[in-house]
Amino acid sequence: MIDLQERPVLAAKARLRKDARSGRYLLLYPERGMELNATGVEIVRLCNGQSTVGEIVDTLARRYASAPSGLIESEVLSFLGALEDRALLARDGHP
Q: How many domains does the structure of the chain reveal?
């Protein structure tokens, strides 16, 4: 389970890239890819090894003030869990 004090970073094998044709963002990893929505892109960009999961939640809560903060926290944890399940997330800079 991901803790709010952890500082997630993308695994070395994962790259965020903008598709030249569609303009959509993709999270690319060996022989696979995942198309991300705007919120997913924001979360991935905040996985910089500096921000804690709690700080990521707080940043998104400020950007999306109309959404309940509990919902934002739940969605961020779920998204990060999905990345971790695919080995696309490192914790505190450690794969």
A: 1
